[in-house]
């Protein structure tokens, strides 16, 4: 019997880096120009073009939205040459469109790939998220705990005071009560304006970023992308879908989700080994942004494989 091609993550990883790099370079000339849509479209076009050069039979499971809402790289879109392994693809062609338009830190292009049916098909709703870095006992913090309990438990596991814990939170009015709870413990807060994939990735390298924990509600699709990153970098993550109305519950049903109260672990969101690439668009705490010279662009990409735990930082210079 004919066996389908295997998912050779090592062979595909460099191609994934090229996809991420191309999207970053395409959006770079729009940094600071105030046009979020144009920057996003440039990244989408470049990412799609590069994906279609890979020998994969890919399906976008985390993308730019439903087909009617996103004519490019929509959920369910097929990409690749049509040859090779069947794969799931989660992507955000430009995580931080507003950051790019305003030339603010931490805009990234982000993409993850795994074998078919390896990633949660998260609907476009909010997700309550909790993440910490590697080196702690399993379930040292959970979503069942109150924010104060989580900080105290992490401080005890780390062997420090709660005032030594630094929590990353997306700066939104919906987090006002969460911020008050964190302040009660004496913990520090680093607010981010956008880009909670990067915010969660900060937890994996606390020695570099100073971030110990991520808490708050953000997009569920971005949660799967962040889980893919932590699958490679190490750490723990929990997510619970949040529904505001029947339309959002209908999106969950369409995605095949029946238990609306389920708490997903990192390994529930990403069930098999994946590869992950992110390229800096604007300078940030994870990656430097695209450097634009008169005839050349230079990018830095984070390329990771969960199978080996390898984390590579790759500099690419390309004449334009």
Query: How much of the sequence is in beta strands?
Result: 25-35%
CATH superfamily of the largest domain, by name, is: Fructose-1,6-Bisphosphatase, subunit A, domain 1
Are there runs of 5+ residues with pLDDT below 50, and where? none
Distance between the termini: 48 Å
Number of helices: 10
CATH overall fold name of the largest domain: Fructose-1,6-Bisphosphatase, Chain A, domain 1
The main sheet comes to:
8 strands, mixed
Task: Using the alpha-carbon principal axes, give the shape.
Answer: globular
Structural class: alpha+beta
Give the averaged pLDDT, no decimals.
93
Give the C-alpha Rg: 19 Å
How many strand units? Answer: 14
Q: Tell me the series of helices and strands, N- to C-terminal.
A: HHEEEHEEHEHEHHEHEHEHEEEE
| Level-1 CATH class name of the largest domain | Alpha Beta
Helix content: 25-40%
Brief synopsis:
The chain has 320 residues and is of the alpha+beta class.
Walkthrough of the structure:
The protein has 320 residues and is α+β, with helices and mostly antiparallel strands. The chain contains ten helices and 14 strands. Strand 13 and strand 14 form a beta hairpin. Helix 1 packs antiparallel against helix 2 (36-51) and helix 4 runs parallel beside helix 5. The longest helix has 20 residues, at 9-28. It starts with 8 loop residues before the first helix and ends with a strand.
What's the helix and strand layout?
Blueprint: H1 9-28, H2 36-51, E1 57-62, E2 78-79, E3 86-95, H3 97-101, E4 108-115, E5 126-132, H4 147-158, E6 166-170, H5 176-185, E7 188-192, H6 196-201, H7 206-209, E8 213-219, H8 220-233, E9 236-242, H9 246-254, E10 263-265, H10 266-269, E11 275-280, E12 291-293, E13 296-305, E14 310-319
Parallel strand pairs: 1-3, 6-7, 6-8
Antiparallel strand pairs: 1-2, 3-4, 4-11, 5-8, 5-9, 9-10, 11-13, 12-13, 13-14
